[in-house]
Amino acid sequence: MVLFPKLSAMSGMLQQAKQVQEKIEELQSELAALRIEGRAGGGLVTAMVNGQQELLTIRLDESLQREDLELLEDLIVAAVGQALKKSREESQTKMNSLTGGMLGGLNLPGI
Prior knowledge:
Blueprint: H1 5-33, E1 35-40, E2 45-50, E3 55-60, H2 69-99
Antiparallel strand pairs: 1-2, 2-3
Helix pairs in contact: 1-2
């Protein structure tokens, strides 16, 4: 017989919250280690981001040294945009799998 059923239930909820917090911290570490690539111009420009939407590297094909600077800038923006989009999608997928979709489409940044 439980003398304080509400206290027991609260203790269980606190334990669950602690477990979710630990899983979120693990996920954040996993996302920081994740490497996602975006390409533009048929692979002439490649951008690498992590799962926390941080730009890590930009690679330019050697042939671009002779290309128009404006075209190069557009390709860089396109490659970074593609990498960040993929990173957001991957992060959201991982968060949904962790929370069972309980957070819906909140698109939490930095997670």
